Amino acid sequence: MFDYLVVGAGFFGAVFAHEVTRAGKKVLVIEKRDHIGGNCYSWDDEKTGINIHKYGPHIFHTRDKNIWNYMTALADFNGYRHRVLTTARGQIYSLPIHLGTINQFFNLQLTPDEAVAFLKSKTTATLHPLNLEEKAISLVGPELYETLIKGYTTKQWGCAPRELPAEIISRLPVRTSNNDLYYDDDYQGMPVGGFTPIFEKLLSGIPVELNTDFFDRKPYWQSIAGTIVYTGPIDRYFDYRFGKLGWRSCRFEMESMSLDDYQGVSVMNYADVDVPYTRIIEPKHFYPERTEASRGTVIMREYPCNDPDDPYYPVGLKGDREILSAYQKARKRESNVIFGGRLAEYQYYDMDQVVAKALELARRLSG
Fold first, then answer.
1. Is 171 assigned a catalytic role?
2. Regions in the chain scoring below 70 on pLDDT
3. Residues 6+ apart with CB under 8 A from 310
4. Catalytic residue among 302, 320, 345, 352
5. What is residue 147's predicted lDDT score, i.e. its pLDDT?
6. Angle of the 112-122 helix axis to the 99-106 helix axis, nearest 10
7. Conformation bin of residue 72: beta by default, left when phi > 0, alpha when psi is -120 to 50
8. Which member of 3, 64, 200, 248 is catalytic?
9. How many C-beta atoms lie closer than 10 Å to residue 276's C-beta?
10. How many angstroms separate the CA atoms of 353 and 359, rounded?
11. Which listed residue (45, 145, 182, 279) is catalytic?
């Protein structure tokens, strides 16, 4: 009999399992995929020596020094700082939108103070934006929105931006300084050996069963542990009894090249709606300290899609929120089940937030 059965070997499950095992609890981890690490799984490509993030780029960033210390105790991190470019209407711009983007787009030479006034002249004050489109236009005006945001967002989420919650656009900062970093967080970087070794350390000494679907033998798994820590999609746990939540997924096309450098940046977005992919990722740029050792380069074209068997992002339309409310009520009646992580809570979390929540839960239950 186990104290905890952890369903899913991503960050929430792995951190929780690690911490409660240290506290003397007996834990079993099961994972549907053939590897640990969830969507952060990475490996070194044999042909090029480049570390590949199988499910798209994951850049660790946080403002919490305690979380940073926790992560850097598990791995050495390089000094990578994320910068993104976007191709739109035949031009290349820097994202997020900042002073340089504004000046380039409008062919101006504004100072930071002038840019504040300029953007204000382009926008209409909206006290309570009802959707992503209204929120974006209230921040940057219609021209920048139509060129840099609308097409990408439509492709990413598979619907018109006016159907999406306003808070989604809040993840992308708008600046009138020349700060072109994608994240403002004090602590940022990539684990120098990729993410998978972190999970290997977290799960060292803990039994892990891969290629194991919780739902194939749900009654059995429920019988062998006092508490289940479930990190999969919440609607799947309840067999979709209140309906299916909206999820968005991605598929990737990987291509190896003999070039030293394909695009000069780790991520190039494609904002035009007629380009079928949202971005091209060139992973070697995440690890500049390894560039000389790499042989050629690798690119990954990212295509957003709907894949019910492999959900990535909660969409959160009005209908989703109504369905989620029903699942949240049902969740409270599951006395021996803990729901944690992005999928189980139907919330968009960054990696540091997932780690923090898993640590908080483990320490509370172990205390």
1. yes
2. 292-294, 367
3. 249
4. 302
5. 98
6. 60
7. alpha
8. 248
9. 10
10. 10
11. 279
Tokens (6 digits) for 73: 């105790």
Show the tokens assigned to 26: 């007996």
Q: What is the pLDDT of residues 255-305, one digit of tens each?
A: 999 999 999 999 999 999 999 999 999 999 999 887 766 689 999 999 999
Does the annotation count 279 as an active-site position?
yes
Cβ distance 155 to 301 under 8 Å?
Answer: no
Return the axis-axis angle of helices 351-366 and 11-22, rounded to nearest 10°.
30
Is the Cβ–Cβ distance between 349 and 357 less than 8 Å?
yes
- Predicted pLDDT of residue 110: 97
Q: Is 236 a catalytic residue?
A: no
Amino acid residing at 50 = I
Question: Among this protein's residues, is 322 annotated catalytic?
Answer: no
Cβ atoms of 112 and 176 closer than 8 Å: yes
Nearby residues of 22 by Cβ (< 8 Å), 6 or more positions away:
none
Q: What is the DSSP string of 271-302?
A: --TTSS-SEEE-GGGG-GGGGGG--SEEEEEE
Look at residue 13 in the predicted model and tell me its pLDDT. Answer: 98
Annotated catalytic residue 175: yes
The confidence score (pLDDT) of residue 293 equals: 66
pTM of the full structure: 0.95
348 given a catalytic annotation:
yes
User: Considering 114, 185, 310, 350, which one is annotated as catalytic?
Assistant: 350
Q: Phi/psi of residue 167, each to 5°?
A: -70, -15
Q: Are strands 267-270 and 279-281 parallel, antiparallel or unpaired?
A: antiparallel
Q: Which long-range contacts does 66-73 make (Cβ < 8 Å, 24+ apart)?
A: 67/352, 67/355, 67/356, 67/359, 68/186, 68/187, 68/352, 70/355, 70/359, 71/191, 71/198, 71/352, 71/355
Helix (H, G, I), strand (E, B) or coil at 138: helix
- Is the CB of residue 7 less than 8 Å from the CB of residue 352? no
Q: DSSP state, 191?
A: B
Contact present, 214 and 232 (Cβ < 8 Å): yes
341: tokens are 């992580």
113, 171, 274, 333: which is the annotated catalytic residue?
171
Whether residue 342 lies in the annotated active site: no
Query: Structure tokens of 45?
Result: 């490509």
Catalytic option among 33, 175, 236, 331: 175
